[in-house]
Amino acid sequence: MSRAFLLLRRRLVGSIFVLLIVVVGTFLLLEAAPGDAVDAYLVSTGGDAGIVEAMRQSWGLDQSAATRLANYLWALLHFDLGQSVAFSRPIRDVILERLPVTLVLMGASTAVSFGLGSALGIYAGARPGSFRDRFLSTASLALYAVPGFWLALVLVIIFAVDLRWFPISGFETIASGKTGLARAGDIAHHLVLPVTSLGVIYLALYLRMMRAGMAEVWRLDFVRAARARGLSRRRIVLAHVARNALLPLVTMLGLQSAQMLGGSVVIESIFSVPGLGRLAQEAVALRDTPLLLGIILVSAVLVILINLLVDITYAFLDPRVGASEASA
Amino acid sequence: MRRLTRVPEALVGFGILSALAVMALAASMLFPGDPLAIKGAPLLPPFQDWSLPLGTDRLGRDVLAELFHGARTSLAVGIAAAAAAIAVGAVIGTLAGFAGGIVDEVLMRITDAFQTVPSFLLALAFVSVVGPSLTVVVIAIALSAWTGPARVARAEVLSIRERDFVAGARVIGMHPLEIALREVLPNAVPPVLALSSVIVASAILIEAALSFLGLGDPNRITWGGMIAEGRTVLRSAPFLSIVPGVALVLTVLGVYLAGEGVVEGTAVRKGLS
Amino acid sequence: MTGPLVSIRNLSVSYRRDATSPSLRNIDLDIIAGERLAIIGESGSGKSTLALAIAGLLPSTATVDGAILWSGQPLLPRGGRDIGFVFQDASASLDPVMTVGRQIAEVARTHLGLGWAQAQHRALELLRRVRLPDPDTALGAYPHQLSGGQRQRVAIAAAIAAGPRLLIADEATSALDTIVQAEIVALIRQLVVEDGMALLFVSHDIALAAELADRIAVFRSGEMVELGTADAVIQAPGHAYTRKLLDAHIGLDAAPMIAQAGHGHV
Question: Which residues in chain A have Cβ-Cβ distances shorter than 8 Å to C200?
Answer without folding.
Answer: none
